[in-house]
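Sanity check

After download, print the first record. It should look like this:
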Amino acid sequence: MAARPGGALAFPSSPTSLLLSRSRSAPDLAAAPTRTGRRRRWLVAGVPAVAGALAASAPASAAVLRDGGATLLVTAGAYSLVRAFDALTERRLIEQVSELLRGPLYYVIVLLIIVLVFWRDSPIGIVSLSMMSGGDGFADIVGRRFGLLKLPFNKKKSWAGSVAMFISGSLLSALMLLYFSWLGHIQVSWDQALGKLLLVALAATVVECIPVNDVVDDNISVPLATMFVAFLLFGNTAT
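Expected structure tokens:
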């Protein structure tokens, strides 16, 4: 009901006019819920995409955390090892030799090559690193401390150092193979692998004893011989 210009009240011409006026506003009232529903459907549809992206990034994040943790542990272990040798040197339990460039430089280069080429799913790299760090390293320490009886063909080497290299290199190689097989990187058949490890350690020990250090540094000759023999015996598997 509306007022006419003359002041009289005016009624709708028919009952349907009010229904028509209401029906004209119905689309406007329904438009908002429709747009809201579309936004909700878009948000719901976007949830799997976001979840998939997060799931895809999870392995990468885990790998970064794992590698970062391994780096910290290795750094801490290396620092502790250096400090331990410093303490042994200060107590005169081992002798200190200043070998600043030649040996350490070759050692680091060979280690880098082994890591890049073989590490970590190849027994060749695992055994080569073990013989260098465990075998050759303990041979020098034991030889300087207890190496009174020299080898007849090389007066710079001793029986004690050679035996220490063979034993420590074999043990460390076996432990490293056991560790990486436990991680699932390689498969080890121990009934065959132990004999091969002993042959590799023997070859590395013999090469370390040969008096050719003035021509080829043992930080190069020993890992090369180890890699060659390990390749012939193991190939790419530790069976």
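If your output differs, re-run the checksum step. Summary of this record's structure: The radius of gyration is 38 Å.
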